[in-house]
Amino acid sequence: MASLKGGIGSSSGGGGGLGIEKLSVEQLKAVKEQTDMEVNLLQDSLNNIRTATTRLDLASIALNDLSLRPQGKKMLVPLTASLYVAGTLDDADNVLVDVGTGYFIEKTMAEGKDYCERKINLLKSNFDQLLEVASKKKSIGDEAGAILQAKLKQLSPSAQ
Hints:
There is one protein chain. This protein is of the alpha+beta class. The chain has a single domain (26-152), classed as Helix Hairpins, CATH 1.10.287.370. The protein has 4 helices and 4 strands, in the order H-H-H-E-E-E-E-H. Helix 3 runs antiparallel to helix 4 (109-159). The longest helix has 51 residues, at 109-159. It starts with a helix and ends with a helix. Belongs to the prefoldin subunit alpha family. This is Prefoldin subunit 5.
């Protein structure tokens, strides 16, 4: 399968497109199905990154809002997405940062904001890289689909 990927990938380099055209109809269908599946998985990953970035943006906004509130301020504290309890702001200088898998780290407000910004930048970088890979996979799938359609048209009149 590695040689197949190499042959397909070289077609975008200009002049190397003959490799994919030599594949049988069954092989072209397999390439098309595989690339479509990979593109769908990459789209799911892109959506997950988008969701995580939105959450971090909201967390960053919440930290900015929290830093402006005076100590002793009464507020609602979220326990879940739909359950809030009454609370009082005790220390706006230190926050607990969720670093994943149920672990929280106490950080200063500035460190918490910095953490959010670094994670947002990392996610945006990963998003851009995945978008590029998804675009390449989609073009390979489209190329395989076009060649498959052409081959099926060639086979159709000869069968009659």
